[in-house]
């Protein structure tokens, strides 16, 4: 996992925990529950974005594993280079 993602998840967890404690002590248990659920949704969105991003470290690690010492460009689907044609 990327270190930045781990720090983001930890920061969100700390923030949600503090808000949960404050809201619970104020007698607003329903808002505390909604804050916890919202924090969970935010973390899930972050993880899904990280997992589906094409340049994330886990995707590059899969390419390196498949290719070994060979050229990674063989395994990447790159568009062929085309020459630009200018209009007359």
Please describe the biggest sheet, giving its number of strands, its sense, and whether it closes into a barrel: none
Q: What's the total helix number?
A: 3
% residues in beta strands: under 5%
What class would the helix/strand composition place it in? mainly alpha
Subunit arrangement of the protein: single chain
Global geometry: elongated
- Kindly report how far apart the N and C termini lie: 51 Å
User: How are helices and strands ordered from N to C?
Assistant: HHH
Mean pLDDT across the residues is 78
Tell me what you see in this structure.
The protein is mainly α and 88 residues long. Helix content is 66%, strand content 0%. The protein is elongated, with a radius of gyration of 22 Å. The mean pLDDT is 78.
Using brief descriptors, characterize the structure shown:
mainly alpha; 3 helices
Strand and helix layout:
Layout: H1 3-25, H2 29-52, H3 57-67
Briefly characterize the structure.
The chain is mainly alpha-helical. It is built from 3 helices and no strands.
């Amino acid at each position: 996992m990327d270190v930045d993602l781990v720090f983001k998840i930890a920061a969100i967890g700390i923030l949600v925990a503090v808000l949960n404690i404050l809201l619970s002590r104020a007698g607003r248990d329903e808002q505390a529950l909604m804050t916890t659920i919202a924090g969970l949704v935010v973390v899930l969105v972050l993880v899904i974005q990280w997992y589906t991003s094409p340049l994330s470290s886990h995707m590059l690690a899969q390419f390196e594993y498949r290719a070994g010492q060979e050229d990674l460009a063989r395994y990447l689907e790159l568009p062929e280079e085309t020459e630009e044609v200018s209009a007359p």
